[in-house]
Design goal:
- With 362 residues, this protein is an alpha/beta fold.
- The protein is built from eleven helices and 19 strands.
- It has helices at 69-81, 135-145, 170-182, 197-203, 216-225, 233-236, 239-244, 250-273, 292-299, 306-311, 315-321, and strands spanning 6-11, 18-24, 27-29, 37-41, 47-50, 52-57, 84-89, 107-110, 114-116, 126-128, 149-153, 155-158, 163-166, 186-191, 207-210, 228-230, 334-337, 353-356, 359-360.
- The strands form six sheets. It has a four-stranded mixed beta sheet with strand order 3-2-1-4, with no helix packed on it.
- It is globular.
Length: 362
């Protein structure tokens, strides 16, 4: 008699070795489960990879804001159907913790709200500090609101200067990092341009989002300090449109176009230097959900092999975030593929199964 348990057997594309395990009660077991049905039955039948990771995502954001938890749930379902079964939600005006009780949703690790200054970020997306010297206090609040991350807006257009400028002083950034770490959280920053990066890197942030303004010296320092980078490659395709719509700010237009033109060389240099780079779509707002495969494929454009690009969206960020993949007793989140993704990443677009919390959802 069937117990509801299922056996999965295939090939691990990262090792080329056979991989066999059982799923029962939503978790993985490497011990055989009596009465299990075979879902996938042999190393030549399938390739099995851990659930993909979208390391920069906002299910609580959409154009116009006002996202309800039900709408956020729909966004989360889109991401899960595409294979993104672990999401690092780096800032949201909506508390999405209620989604944690839905087994069809990805697993989440969150920052609280974005921390910015008045008129120095997208309106109503985050907390706007009138007194920047209160940054450390706000970092502590957002660390308590999240699941191990805090997100600062490092630069944004300053309408008086007519260009991207930093939001914080080095001293304020130093206290933000210390406070986040004292509260058991890691801290990241949104940064498009160059001016804010030296202080953010020197302050010891744990990661940088976007990072189009990096140069060789900063890249080397990121390697030395082990600061990760989530470049959000598909989001950067919006830079020309952003520039085109900013006729009142010609310096800003020039900056955004220059950053766009230089992005591939910057990220290729970061990869070659050894910066840890992870896949993140920046879904929410300007990028639709369910596009993790687009980001994986975009990584090959900065020099990643197909298998390394897949690792940057699965095994590597799971190690970074401390969330195991296919491991004993862990939540059963994985993809079953019909071909080796090391040969053809397009197989990720037609998974045989997407298994989320032990249930086939696609």
């Amino acid at each position: 008699m069937s117990t509801g348990a299922q056996r999965f057997a295939g090939t691990d594309p990262f090792t080329g070795e056979p991989l066999e395990f059982w799923v029962s009660g939503g978790t993985v077991s490497f011990e055989p489960v009596a009465g299990a049905d075979t879902a996938v039955g042999g190393p030549d039948a399938a390739w099995i990879v851990p659930g993909l990771v979208d390391a920069h995502n906002h299910v609580g954001i959409a154009p116009g804001l006002g996202v309800t938890i039900d709408r956020a749930r729909g966004f989360a379902y889109e991401d899960a159907q595409a294979g993104a079964l672990l999401i690092r939600e780096v800032g949201s005006p909506l508390d999405t913790h209620p989604l944690d009780d839905d087994p069809r949703c990805p697993r989440f690790l969150r920052a609280g709200k974005h921390i910015a200054r008045p008129k120095r970020y997208l309106r109503d997306y985050g907390v706007e500090l009138s007194d920047p010297d209160l940054l450390a206090d706000e970092v502590a609040r957002q660390a308590r609101a999240g699941d191990g991350w805090v997100k600062l807006v490092g630069d944004w257009i300053d309408r008086e200067a007519g260009d991207l400028t930093p939001l914080w002083t080095r001293a304020q950034l130093d206290t933000a990092v210390v406070t986040a770490h004292e509260h058991g959280a890691r801290i990241t920053a949104h940064v498009f341009g160059a001016a804010a990066l030296p202080d953010i890197v020197a302050a010891g942030f744990d990661s940088i989002e976007h990072g189009t303004g990096l140069d060789t010296d900063l890249i080397d320092e990121m390697v030395r300090r082990d600061i990760a980078l989530v470049p959000t490659l598909i989001q950067l395709e919006n830079f020309p449109g952003i520039a085109d719509s900013a006729d009142r700010f010609p310096k800003y237009q020039e900056t955004m176009r220059r950053l766009y033109d230089g992005r591939t060389a910057v990220f290729a240099a970061a990869r070659e230097a050894g910066v840890r780079i992870y896949a993140g779509t920046d879904a929410g707002g300007f990028i639709g959900h369910g596009r993790i495969i687009d980001e994986v494929e975009a990584l090959t454009g900065i020099g990643f092999s197909p298998l390394d690009a897949l690792a940057a969206a699965s095994t590597a960020p799971r190690d970074w975030l401390g969330v195991p993949g296919i491991a004993e007793g862990e939540r059963a989140d994985f993809l079953v593929l019909d071909a080796d993704p090391a040969d053809d990443l397009s197989t990720l677009r037609r998974p045989v199964h997407v298994v989320c919390s032990g249930e086939k959802i696609g």
